[in-house]
Design goal:
The complex is a heterotrimer of chains A (about 190), B (about 450) and C (about 300). Chain A is mainly alpha-helical and about 190 residues long. Chain A has six helices and two strands, in the order ααααααββ. In chain A, strands 1-2 form a two-stranded antiparallel ribbon. The longest helix of chain A has 26 residues. The radius of gyration of chain A is 26 Å and the shape is flat. Chain A starts with a helix and ends in an 18-residue tail after the last strand. Chain B is α/β, with parallel strands linked by helices. Chain B is built from 16 helices and 15 strands. In chain B, the strands form five sheets. A five-stranded parallel sheet of chain B has the order 2-1-3-4-5. With about 300 residues, chain C is mainly alpha-helical. Chain C has one domain. Chain C is built from eleven helices and no strands. The two termini of chain C are about 35 Å apart. Classes of the chains: A mainly alpha (about 190), B alpha/beta (about 450), C mainly alpha (about 300).
């Protein structure tokens, strides 16, 4: 079978899948389902990126979305206390504004899609696209970005530890104070 | 022979998934079924084909029993292992096994399962009518019984509420009932909980009232010892067995089912003077971390809260050397000294039982022909025992405040570490529906 | 590789892996239980139980999310297959060897939490729901140490392709080069396969957790998918830490199979040797101990390469 035909068919499948699942996000009445439909939509976009030979970007997009959507679903459920959408709820609010924003962004993206002259150069198979992408994005600043990344991670863990209610010396709202030093009394001989 | 016939013949040779319910006087026999390789004891009715009712399941639990039965998947059936009980269970059991020998029971279960799979025995019908838990049809804007986004009883079920969690966030809270057939708890123990995710925010005991026919209850040597002289060696071996069974159920709760089988096998065969076996077990438990990070600091009870409530290993695991045997001249002659552990947590209680099991086998080896005097105070494996003074009655009221703020996994470890006796919990149903909380 | 051949090879590998998990589990369980060698039960019980579960009817709960319930095991199995597909068996022999094979595997691992959450959410029942919430906390804490431990193995190869990572272990295996890596990987692997001491979503304290309402084919599919996941993790561990096909005398694929079996035995046997961990200290340990350790691992292996 012709390879480019396969790629074309796959592209249309993923594209249609992304659009349909994206639409379903707003049609379902359950927060968890909405989050998972959104995840499915992103997976479709990630797959399209892979088809565009941006393997790394596509796979990383899928990787990141898994965790993010799960957190979103859990947090929404726990705060909204409407498990499984037992009472129907709408995923769409501010209808007029939403419709207007949707139409405008659709028109804008359509104009871009129709007017821009997209490059049409197949990637040379001998090029390591992932490595090229890394140099293109970060260049010589790789070390700086990596250091910043680790520093940010440490900061996040530290911030959560500091913000937690249960501190080392009791709960925060009861005043988490370090106990005074106790000096052991020496036994008199 | 058709495909389905071949399939059912193969399937009949698989370990039979059984959900057991231990009634009065049946706990030890049911626990010991874990070692049977032809059965697979499962934790949830959905996974089981055979519901095994053992001993006397009180009629006060009839409604819960019917719900349990209806939670099983098909094909399903129930089997009653009488174990000396005379009152029939509340749900229909097409098969009864009167012999207390476990191997005969296993044969019967395997046979029932075979007949069930080949279609000789009909799968049982639901016990409860298919009706809504609360009226909801046609109520509310969508006819689903709800109001607004978070109100009403959609589809007949109450919705979660919000309440502050331990970090001060307002998150959802579920009000649930766990029991009376929760696989990790003694039969009849019901907890009403408010759960936030994994955390117990509030716990209450709910022991439904009901009559327990105390007749036909299998007696233990400790029950006999209240009235007649019993050999000290018999009592001490029984004590070691009871402690080992308690350790086995703790191992199951800590997901070490195969190690629990080993402990149960040991419990079945210990003889006076077998204390070195326990020594070896102690090393295995330490390595598996059951006597390590899995239980250290879990379920800590402040020693002052145990004053006047708990006795037995729970009290001695908090560092108090109180043991009725210490005042018994017979034990005094054997050189008995109470064992204590420090910590008063699940780890200390497990270690305490293990050490006492070892000590009991040692004492039994030395006791020879000595008898326990029925006039002397009696120390059961769960603490001081006297007529009408059951250890479980003293321990149960501690549970609600103990569980509050715990993760559910720790809550289960804690309840298991208290070693509540099923018979005693069921007996409380009969006499005292409301256990007073001090 | 032709698509048909690829699908069949992954399916066969998965079937062998799942059966291996069942048999190792049975043997380890009997050894620990002291049951002794009792006939052919260990070998025959898994297929018998499969047939029994096929005959058992599925269980339905009130207002369950039927699609989600059916999807969850399929998703988990698909993820195991994806992970397995990028593991090379011999030099130049892999079902798929994309340049980002490492990231594809990591993505499959990350998606496990979606499958488990869906599996616990769908039955609309208490214990599965608690299991689902719990796994959210567990899996999110596992992700970063897992990625960091695996990422370190890509450093010596200077590539994200799994084939290159194995190729770079000709002189010295990564398990020697990065002694911290394999223990972290195995610990996290057991957690991702929610097995034994880290089986918190389906734990004994939740009487089965997310699978508490499963019966028949639901239970079968879930158990099979989970075993396949464990197998995929063991195979990847053998490739990136134990030098994959490298080894004297025996042909490459045999070495690969032996090493996979080794890791599988360690992971599966943990179920019978170690108690269930407590979720709270475990999550704290993930963030406060394993992440720094995994970072140290990366820094050290990076420094050694300079």
């Amino acid at each position: 079978m012709n390879r480019s035909l396969v790629v074309d068919v796959l592209f249309w499948c993923f594209a249609a899948g992304s659009v349909v699942t994206g639409f379903l996000v707003f049609r379902t009445d359950s927060m968890v389902r909405a989050a998972f439909w959104l995840l499915a939509s992103f997976v479709g976009v990630g797959a399209i990126l892979v088809l565009l030979a941006a393997e790394f970007l596509g796979v990383v997009l899928i990787l990141m979305m898994a965790g993010e959507m799960l957190i979103m679903a859990v947090v929404m459920v726990m705060f909204m206390m409407n498990p499984a959408g037992l009472n129907p709820m709408f995923m769409v609010h501010q209808h007029r504004f939403a419709v207007a924003a949707g139409v405008v962004s659709f028109a804008g993206l359509s104009v871009v899609a129709l007017t821009v002259d997209f490059p049409d150069q197949p990637v040379d198979p001998s090029v390591d696209a992932t490595a090229e992408l890394g140099f293109e994005l970060l260049g010589d600043s790789m070390l700086v970005f990596q250091t910043a990344g680790v520093a940010l991670l440490a900061t996040m863990v530290g911030a959560i530890a500091l913000a937690s209610r249960n501190g080392r010396f009791g709960t925060a709202d009861e005043g988490s104070h370090e106990p005074p030093l106790e000096i052991e009394e020496l036994e008199s001989p | 022979m058709g495909l389905s016939a071949v399939a059912s013949r193969v399937a009949t040779r698989a370990p039979v998934p059984v959900f057991p319910v231990a009634g009065l006087g049946a706990r030890a026999a049911v626990d010991d079924l874990l070692v049977e390789t032809r059965l697979r004891i499962v934790d949830t009715p959905a996974a089981a084909n055979v519901l095994l009712l053992a001993g006397d399941v009180p009629s006060g639990l009839a409604a819960e029993l019917a719900r349990l039965h209806d939670g099983m998947s098909r094909p399903r059936t129930s089997l009653w292992w009488t174990l000396g009980a005379s009152v029939r269970p509340a749900i229909r059991c097409p098969t009864e096994v009167r012999d207390p020998d476990p191997s005969i029971l296993v044969d019967a279960v395997v046979d029932v399962h075979r007949r069930l799979l080949t279609g000789e025995l009909a799968s049982s019908y639901p016990q409860l009518p298919d009706e809504d838990a609360a009226p909801w049809r046609g109520i509310g804007p969508y006819g689903q019984g709800g109001t607004g986004m978070t109100g009403g009883v959609p589809y007949g079920r109450p919705m979660a509420e919000v309440a502050p969690d331990r970090d001060g966030l307002r998150l959802d809270q579920l009000t649930v009932r766990i029991g009376p057939f929760f696989a990790r708890f003694p039969t009849g123990l019901v907890l009403e909980l408010r759960l936030q995710g994994d955390v117990v925010q509030e716990a209450q005991l709910a022991l439904p009232a009901g009559d327990v026919p105390m007749s036909g209850v299998a007696t233990t040597p400790f029950g006999d010892a209240l009235g007649v002289p019993v050999r000290v060696s018999v009592l001490e071996v029984e004590r070691a067995r009871s402690h080992l069974r308690s350790i086995a159920s703790a191992l199951v709760a800590h997901q070490l089912g195969s190690l629990a089988q080993r402990v149960l096998r040991l419990a079945g065969k210990v003889r006076p003077g077998d204390d070195h076996e326990i020594e070896r077990l102690h090393r295995v438990l330490r390595r598996s971390q059951v006597l390590g990070w899995a239980t250290t600091g879990v379920g800590h009870i402040a020693p002052e809260r145990l004053e006047g409530t708990a006795s037995g290993p729970i009290l001695r695991a908090s560092g108090v050397a109180r043991d009725e045997r210490a005042d018994d001249p017979v034990y005094g002659g054997l050189g008995f000294e109470p064992i204590v552990h420090e910590g008063s947590d699940a780890r200390a209680r497990l270690a305490q039982r293990l050490a006492e099991a070892r000590q009991a086998l040692e004492l039994a080896g030395r006791a020879g022909e000595l008898d326990h005097d029925p006039e002397s105070p009696l120390e059961s494996p769960r603490g001081r025992l006297a007529a009408g003074d059951l250890p479980a009655r003293r321990v149960l009221p501690l549970i609600p405040s103990l569980l509050e703020g715990m993760e559910w996994g720790d809550a289960v470890s804690t309840v298991v570490s208290l070693d509540l006796d099923t018979d005693e919990v069921l007996a409380l149903h009969a006499t005292d529906p409301k256990v007073s909380v001090p | 590789m032709a698509p048909g051949v690829a699908v069949v090879s992954v399916a066969v590998a998965m079937a062998i892996g799942v059966y291996a998990v069942a048999v190792i589990d049975g043997i380890a369980g009997r050894l620990v239980a002291g049951a002794g060698r009792r006939g052919v039960g260990v070998v025959l019980d898994p297929p018998r139980t499969v047939v029994l579960l096929l005959m058992q009817r599925r269980h339905r709960t009130e207002r369950a999310d039927a699609q989600g319930w059916a999807l969850a095991p399929a998703l988990l199995g698909g993820l195991a297959a994806t992970g397995l597909a990028v593991v090379p068996v011999d030099r130049g022999t892999a079902v798929a060897d994309p340049g980002t094979g490492f990231v594809v595997f990591a993505t499959a691992i990350a998606f496990v939490m979606i499958a488990v959450f869906l599996h616990g959410w769908s039955p609309n029942s208490l214990f599965p729901l608690i299991g689902a919430y719990r796994y959210g906390a567990q899996a999110l804490s596992l992700q970063i140490p897992f990625l960091l431990a695996m990422l370190a193995t890509a450093l010596p190869a200077e590539s994200l392709a799994v084939m290159d990572i194995v190729e770079a272990q000709g002189d010295v295996w990564n398990v020697v080069r990065q002694p911290l890596g394999l223990p972290i990987y195995l610990m996290v692997g057991v957690g991702v396969g929610f097995w034994g001491p880290l089986n918190l979503p389906d734990g004994a304290d939740l009487v089965g957790g997310t699978s508490a309402e499963d019966a028949g084919t639901d239970r079968l599919a879930w158990e099979v998918a989970r075993a396949a996941m464990l197998f995929a993790i063991a195979a990847m561990g053998a490739a990136v830490f134990l030098g994959g096909w490298w080894g004297p005398l025996l042909p490459g694929p045999v070495w690969m199979a032996l090493k996979t079996l080794c890791l599988l035995v360690v992971m599966v046997a943990s179920r019978h040797l170690l108690a269930r961990v407590r979720i709270e200290p475990f999550v704290v340990a993930c963030w406060a101990v394993f992440i720094p350790l995994a970072l140290v691992n990366i820094f050290v292996s990076g420094a050694l390469l300079l």
